[in-house]
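User:
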Amino acid sequence: MAQDLPPQGGYEPRNLPARGFRPGYYLLGMFAIMGYGWYKYIKGVRELNELGREKMWSRIHLIPLLQAENDRDQVRRYWADQDREQELLGKKTKVYHSDRFVRPTYSISPTNISK
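Assistant: Predicted structure:
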């Protein structure tokens, strides 16, 4: 059996279009998509920074309110303690020999101590 060979003088030239776009267009599209991504990323970072700043300032402005609430609770405990002492001892007692208010210190000790 004879081998199939190209015709004498070769095949006629064919005009085949290249598939897809030129590489420059792909590169341009990639840079456009990356640029948009960086734009959104930087915008998001700025938004997070602004939210953090807002959170910090809200905490700073809430400190006096929380301190006042703590002070009211401490005064309530102080007066309850004074009433309890008077009920038990029958008289008002002073820990210190002055009328100056001394902030009490409370320590919490564990009830169950494991060894």
